[in-house]
Every structure is written in C-alpha cells, then in structure tokens.
Structures
1.
Amino acid sequence: MSKLITYLSESKTFFLQAANSTYVIKIHELGFPLHMHWGATVAPQSVDGLVVRRDRSFGPNVVPGDRLFSLDGAPQECPVYGTSDYRQPAVEVYQPVDGSRILDLRYKSHRIESGKPALEGLPATFTNKSEDAETLVLVLEDAKLGLSVEVLYSVFAAYPVLTRSTRFVNRGKDSLNIRRALSSSVDFTSSYANYHFLQLSGAWARERDVIVTPLRRGIQSVDSKRGVSSHQQNPFFALTELGANEEHGNVYGFNLIYSGNFIATVERDSHDCVRAQIGINPFDFDWQLDSGATFQTPEAVLVFSPNGLGEMSRQLHRFYRAHLLHGEWKDKERPILVNNWEATYFDFDAEKLERIAKAGADIGLELFVLDDGWFGRRNDDRTSLGDWVVDRNKLPNGLTDLGKRVNGQGMKFGLWFEPEMISPDSDLYRAHPDWCVHVPGRQRTEGRSQYILDISRPEVREEIQRSISKILREAPISYVKWDMNRHMTECGSAALPPERQQETAHRYVLGLYSMMEYFTKEFPHILFEGCSGGGGRFDAGILYYMPQIWTSDNSDAISRLRIQYGTSLAYPLSTMAAHVSVVPNHQVGRVTPFRTRGHVAMTGAFGYEMDLSAVSAEDRAEAIEQVKFYKQVRGLLMNGDLYRLKSPFTSNESAWIVVAADQSEAVATHVTILCQPSCGIDYVTLRGLDPKRSYRVVGTEEVYRGDLLMQCGLSITMPTCDFFSQIWHLKAV
Ligand code: DGJ
C-alpha cells in the first residue's frame, strides 16, 4: 500500500491522502497548525505561498510589530481562545491556580503510525488490517502548563474519509479543567461562504427531518443538552455547495461517534471564512484533569464527496458497515421479526404471545420479540424498571418456557430491556434511592414516571449487568432490544465531589459504553437493537455496539418515508429497523395499503409489529409475498448502495434504489403520497446501474439496458389510491 500520510519536512506540511481526497496541514513558523486544504486529491508539494499574510484591523498580532499575522485570520486545526482568535475555539482549559483561561498551543512533535489506535473507553472506527489506514498524531503543547494536546487524524485508503479526535495529557504539576474539548475543527476559506448547513432535526416520532439553510454571518449550530444524542438533533451535519443535490456538488459530512450531549456548529466570520466544528457539548461540561491524567474526546468522522449527497451517504454507509459496525451480526442477514408492542402493549399473557409468535412463524418470520411489560408488576409504564424478574402473573411458566415454545415454532426469541432506568416504584429504587442521576435537596423530575440510573457508578452497572445477564443466560434469548425512554434532568452524581459534578453527563455515556461493551462481549451471539423511544439515540456511538436501531416509534409508512430518508443521509439501511404495523396507524391514524407498508419497511431491518393472526386473508397473503420477496433480496438491501431518487421533503413522491456492489441486481421502490387526478406521464429514472448491461424486471418479460433505465426510467403505474407504491427487482441478464 502506498503511503497515506506524507510529511514534507522542509515546509513542515502534512498531506493526508484518503481515497480521492486530500487534507493538508501546515505547521506555521510560529508553531500553529494551519488548515490548508480539504477536498479533491492534491499531490504533496509546498503550500508555503498559500499562507496568507494580511493586516487585519482589530485582529491583534501574535508577534509584536508583525501586523500581518493574527490568529483571527488564520485557518487553524486546533483553535484556542485568548490569543487573538475571536471565533469559536476547539479547546478551552481553565487553570485553577491563577484563574487563567488562556492557552497557547504550538507544535511540539508528531508521529505517523500505520493503522489506527482504539480510543480508550469510547466507540470508534477501526481498521480490519493495519494497511487500511494511517494515523497522524500531532502533538501540540502549552509550555507554561505542561499540557499536551494530541490531535489524531486517521485516513482510510479505501474511503474519502478522515477521522479526528483529541487527547489531552496533563504533564504539568497542577490540576486543569477542560471546559471545551471538541473532536474536530476545520477552517474553510471564504470561497465556502455560499455553502449551506444541512442538519437532521426532529422530535419524537418525527426524527431527522432534512433541513438546509444558507450559511450566514455568525454562528449556526445544533446541539443536545438532554444527556443523549436525541430525537431533536442528530450529531451529524453537512456543508453543501450552493446548488448541490443528490448527484452534484461538493459536500462535506461530519458525524460524531457519540451518544450524549454534543454540539455541531458552523461559524461564518466577518471575512466570510467558515469554521466547522463537532464534539462534546461544552454546555455544562467541565472535566477536571489532574496532574498526570489524560482525557480522550470522542471521534469525529469527516467525509468528502465531490458528487453530492448521494455519494456522501454511500461512502459513509460502506465505511460504517466495514469499519464501525461490530461483532458477529455486523454483516449477517438480520432475521425478520415480529414484535408484540403495538399488538398488545402491556396487556398480554403467554397464550396471546404464543398466538402472535405462531402467526408469524406460519408466514415465515424468524424471530419473536417480547417487548415491554414482562417483568416486575409492569402493567403500565409507571413501575418496575430495574426489577428484571419475570412477572409470573403474565407468564406463569417463566421466560425460559416461553422462549422454548417460541423456538419450538421454528422462531428465535428476543426480549426488551431498559437497562439504564429505574422506576421510583421498584424494589431496586426502594433498596438504592441514591442510585439515580439526581442532585441532593432538589426535586427528582420524572420522565415517563421514571428516573435514570447513575451508570457512571461501577456498582450500579454491576448490579444491572448481574440481573440482566442472569436472564440472558437462563432463557434462550437471541435478540435484545435496548430501550431508553427519558432525557436527563438534575444532572448530578452522588459518587462525584462537587468540583466534578459537571463530568456527570459524559461519565454517564462512558458508563453506558462500558455496559454495552460488557453485554456485547459476554453474549456475542445475541443481536442487539438500540432504541430510545424510537430513534432518540440513533447515532454512530450506539451503532458501534448494536448493528441496528429502532428508527422511530412512528411506524406509519408515509411518516417513515421522511424519517428513513433523513436517517439514510448518514446511516446505512441495514441499521434502520422498520416494521409493518396495523391501520389506522397508532401514531398518526393514517390508513395505508398493506403493500406500501411492506415496501417501506423492507428498506430497513425488516419486521412486523402486529398480531398477524388477526389480519384479513388478503393482508395475510400480501404478508406471505412480502416475506418471500424480502428473503430473496435481503442481502442486497442490507449491503447494497443506496441512491435516493425522489425526496418526500420536496415532492409528493419518494423513490429510491438499492444496487448490488457488482451492479448485477437492484431493488427500486416508488411511493406516490397523495393520489392526484389526471396526473402526467411519470417515470422513475434509476441510478447506479451499469449502463451497458441489460436488466430483467423480475417476474416480467421486460428487459432494459441500464442506460435506458437511467435516462428514461421505469414507468410508474397510475396510482388508484393514496399512498400507492411499486417495487421492482432488477437482475442483470
Ligand atoms: C419505546 C420503544 O420505542 C417502543 O418500541 C417500545 O419498546 C416502548 N418503548 C416500550 O415501552
């Protein structure tokens, strides 16, 4: 493998060569790491002439008398506050010894390593063999404090992807407080001023709307202060060139591998330069770094696409499937499941569950999932979280017996947990009232009648691990749905001293990762699905441990068009759990055809969330067809390349195609949202096929060349009702 990182020692310049892209850093003569380029490939060469020296009024000067250099006008890799840069810093450190917040970080040394180091206690992308990637560790130092700030860059040979994180090492004798520790900060020149900020924002049951706004002077940002990445905002954003779309234009994507409070922020300064940053939210964050201690930030993933958003997503999807998803299940075809939640809510007994499982088994489903309500005295959502003991009133013969019966029907058995939670009405809370996240002397605010366990504490994690492991060992469990149904309030930990209380939120996330690491290592055969009231924690941090996530509590096919479209901007289809549920839909009351519900759900980790013994003969026949079809194309849908063809955000339609990596096969789906009378002649033009190969539309005699399919497209049947969908399976002949 050729070298991915080149260092030109004479001009002190680093060229980081990822696939089809280059990132250039130059160490300024004063020791500041400057950002010189990120975009299309550039061969290693001197960039000295590009370092701008310009008098900038009201931009104070680092060297007395040299008015031509101010940090306020310099494109930097690790900006700080207080020494002439007035934009948002990447790092802020408070020094209790004298109350100073000033930092002066200069280049000290660097190392170039093959492969990519793991990040202690944090999920991160990884190499499959050391030649996949190379890592630059840029060591910056504040000489007065003895503080080292290591900026880590890893580049991957096969993807236009770069990862970044920052590690602090306190080599000084005094304690320091890290108040801002972003994972990545990139300074773009003023040619980027006309770019747009794309964010994925939403709410419960309406996750990840795609919102695009022009960059304006000042700061634009999205963040979470909820303790989780949240339904409201996602730790992903993109900068898109003016006019960029699915296929054209430069796009820069930024994604944080983190599940807690984050900030993603872009500042267009007074000279129209653009600073793009992502990392832990500095809001309510203060980390005491004792002498000799280290602090590692989460990892940011940076992706460049010269061919629009479509290419950005495909690159991220491929990259995440190969270098983020983990464990036995990462590439395995996921079982088609049936979940009892919307079929029964808390009102079930063994007989009802067995009926649902049997009806699923009869049509070829492969996994039965018992959702909330099987433990303690949980007949509603006000009790028993933390008491992971089966409710014998509902299941007199226990979980092992139920699991075996489900297995007997030829189905695997899965179970729901909410490991991070505790109900005030629970034996666990009565035994350990201080185990929840709280602040003494303050009200404990309830959310869904529950508190959050303080899993920053090892003894709390151990008890949860013990009680849940017991069940996972006893019953034949092949799948776990890991839910999380409220956000943090009164953020404080009884285990931390006053001066460390603002570490609670991050320590919580570290505790979460430690638990997820434990369970996924201890039970490697179990397929874990993340969940947080639907898609409230749909992020790359969770995906490292759990290869799929319940995308939204909204199971309506039409709402899902937007939710899945938005989610697919950053995350692979195989990670998005999607189910067919009953109509009228429980969240929005909409009545959609069974067929459409299937077509939409199939584009994710597929399943049903209903009692299939209670559906009409017609719907049952349709379900049988869906399962048969899905089994034929499951591998393709999981691992193929996604091309978004029509956006439900901007049209009355939604369409997409998933194409096999070797272009031998594809599945295209089209949904018309509202049926329009006297509609025009419409086609769906496909993408990603081989223009020179011919494709048969499976199940018909129709054969077309890829060029025709991509220029003219497939004819859309005139809808005869609202929410009409069509699916085509194409195979190269
Ligand atoms: C929220 C999840 O998103 C639902 O699917 C379901 O598991 C409920 N929690 C159960 O309480």
2.
Amino acid sequence: MWTRRDFVRAMAAGGVAGALPFLSHGASVPDVDLRLVASLDRAPIFPGAETPILRFSGELIAGRPDALKPSPSFLGPTLDLRRGERIRVHFVNRLPEPSIVHWHGMLVPERADGHPRFAVPSGGTYTYDFVVRNPAGTYFYHPHPHGRTGFQVYYGLAGLITVREPFESGMGLPPEAFELPLVIQDRRVARDNSLAYAGGMMDAMNGMLGDTMLVNGLANAAFPVSPRAYRLRVLNASNARIYKLAWSDGAPITVVGTDGGFLSAAEGVQTRAYVTLAPSERVEIVEDFSRRRPGVEIALVSLPFSSGGGMMGGMMGRGMMGGGGQSDELLLARFAVRREPPVKGDPVRLPAAGERAAGAGVTAYTELGFARMQGFLNGRTFAIDAVAPDERLRVGQPVVWTFANPPAGMMAMPHPMHIHGVQFRILERSGSRFAGRDLAEGIVSVGRKDSFLILPGEQVRVAFTPSEAGLFLYHCHNLEHEDGGMMRNVLFEA
Ligand code: C2O
Ligand code: CU
Ligand code: CU
C-alpha cells in the first residue's frame, strides 16, 4: 500500500520535496495544484492474490479540495475540474522506466500536452501548467512515452477528467450524486491473478485484447441504482477493444454528449439501439432507470459484431489467440434497480449550437496502412521530431482533413484515430462496402470529437481550426498500433 510515509520518503529520494512549486513559478497561483505520482503497486482486483499494477496516486498541494476524487480501484484519481481554472500538476515518475502524462482531449499548450519527447526518466519530474479551456465534458489522462504507452496503460495508468460548467445545472441533467463514470477496459488475467501483456505477433496486429472485463478497475462490476435518471460518463480506456454497447433488455441508449462535451440542441439527443465505442472515445448517456421495474437487474453488454475482414473478423478473430476475439460478446457491468419509489427523469435541454465547423480552408490527407505487423500513416511511421510538409497546419486556419483506410485484404481492420490539441467535427463518413456495417450503425458522429473509428475501406473527413501553436500528435489509439509507430507529429504553426 502506498502510504503517506512512503510518499514522503519517495519524494525526498527524488530530491523534489524541497522545491515549493508555487515559489518557483512567480506570483500567479493556480486554482488547483496537485502532485501525480506514477509508481509500482499491487491491488486486490480478483479473489485471492493481489495483482501487480502501475498506479497514479494524486495529492492536492493547494487549491480547491474537491478537485481530486479518489478512484474506487487501482485507476488514477478523477480530476474534477471547472472550465476556466488554472491547473498545475507535478508529475513524479516513480516507474522504473521513462514516462510522461497526456491529458486526452484537453486543449492545452504544447508544453503541457505530454508529447513523448518530454518523457522523463525514472525518478524524474515534469510540471504541467494549463488553463481548462474545454467545455464541460468527460476527458481522461494516460501516459504517452513512445513505445511504452500500451504497456503502462494496460497495467493501470489512466484516470478520468471531468470538466464542469455552471450551465449544466440548468439542463435537466441528473444531479452530480447520480453521475456514474464507467471506464471500460479488457484484460488478460493469468492463473496467479497477474495481468498478462503478451506482445506476440497477434497482439501487435490486433492490439492487446483480453477476455476479462474491468469497469472502473473493478472485476464483475455491479452497481446498485435507484429507479431514476443517471448520467453515465462512459470512457473506452481499453488498449484495442471496440465495444458495441447495448442494454441487455434491448432498451435504446440515449446519448447526450461525445468526446468534447454535450451535443448541441440542433444536433439533438441521439437514440441508438447500440453505441459503437472505439478506444479513447467517450459518450455521455442519460439512462432513466425508472423505466425499469424496481428489483430488476439489467446489464451493459457489448454485442458481437462483424468486425470487418482480414485478421480481425476472419478465422483469427475468435479466440485463436488468448484473450478472445475483437468481436466477442461481453458482459461489462450489471445494474440492480433498487426497490424504491421511482422518480421520473427530466427531459434534457441541450445547449444551443456553439461554434460551427468553419468553411473552406486548407485540406490535409492521410492514408492509413498496415503491413508487417505495423501501422503506417501516409507510408510513414513515428519519429520523435519528424514533421513532413503535409503535416504542417496554421493556427487560426480552418482545415478539412481526410483520413482513408484502404480495404487492404488480410490486413484490413478498423483503426481508432485521434488528433491531439484540437476538438473537431466529423463532416462526412463514406461508410464501408466491405465490412462492419453493424458497427457503422452504432457510431455517433455528432458533437465535438477528438477520436473516431475508421472502418476498412472507409474515408472520414474531419474539420477543425488549430488554436494551440506547437508540435502535437495524431495517431491510431489502438495502443499497440501507436507503440508500433502508427503515429506522427503535426505542427500547428503560429
Ligand atoms: Cu489518448 Cu495520444 O492519446
Ligand atoms: Cu490525446
Ligand atoms: Cu490502428
């Protein structure tokens, strides 16, 4: 267990305890000042032996005391932030290898984005300083050292970020006491309760898939709920698994937000039979459990799907390697509706449309590729500071960026693409003639997005205007693909 004494000792050993951060940074005091330590630990996840894990532990140094909310498990604490606040984070790397933290979906300055070129060695520290510019929504943080992101996330380094704004209380949403984050991950569990991170050929190709589900870091997750409306903040924090989320009783799913916050009134609440959620995507769901009989138990499941060709959906797709196939049916979490008088939920009033996707600007084009167990972007793989001429964009200039996933035979597979430093709109999806039509029907393409799934044979066009100058990243968020080099820099020039 990570005690306060260990903490002090570890900090003293690292030689960072002496420097009072607010003295070394001039007069301006952040609203939230915290320390985030990554270290080796163990956690009771399954009955029997404890599981070796990596853990983010947080400690508030100064500022709003409820900004840091402990997680119910080995996952990192939730950073509960308010738009406009200034945040300072002192990251302390107590891992035996380099690391750096990225705030996924957050619009932060280049220096605070956790690019792998900022990775600090074992024992090192890194100070982040940023203002919360994002709208109210659900974001997350995770390590980003090149080649080791998949490993470090898999063993437990991830945590939620919630951003709040005052207008949320006027939307008819369930109050904060009836918010339930659902951080969904799959793991491969060995007989001794350790987590297996294989790294064989199939794992490099498909990404790391597991057959044991964890929700909020808990195995066999079960949540007692009241017969009333809940706000579910769902994050797919899995390395590689795509979910086709559905309620076990066939009730539709009501989506009010995506990666970058609420849908607009014009876009409207999205109701789907199921929701496709790729790695790093978020959806906010309002579920009115008063629709269910008190005493009943329902489950959030992932439905089986036709994952689309090649190694993914074909013969290898199902259980030939450990950890199950990409398209397997899975039970994620159970919800037992308490025997209480039901409370009918309010209709949700979404905010008026915000900024629109700007019109004509420059265009960019990226073709995905996958060969020899490795992903490519326009035929290139990641190099720490390489930027090609077609990877330079201007701050303030609208861009329409087309991504194309060729239907390349055996290697055809869906890829969850992600761009750092921006929130974009999806202008158009071509759809796929080849596969995954059922997945396509569950994809929610409205709202502000920072990640999207692209099916084999599909083209997706996204629009945004860079606002932060500097070197950022775009990559496949299948973390094994990312670590394998399916990532590139994009330079936003001032
Ligand atoms: Cu979750 Cu490079 O990001
Ligand atoms: Cu990111
Ligand atoms: Cu990929």
